[in-house]
Amino acid sequence: MRHFLLLPVLLLIVSGCSAVKPAISENIALQGQVRAGMPAIDNTTAIYELAVHDGVSYQDVVDSLKSLSEGKNFVNPANFPIGEHIKKRGIDPQGIKEVHSFCNLSLGTDIFLDHPEFLVFAPCRIAIYEKPDANKKLKLFIGLARPTFDLKSIKNPTPRAQKAAQELENTLLEIIDKASKGDI
Question: Which Gene3D superfamilies does its entry note (predicted)?
Answer without folding.
Answer: TT1751-like domain
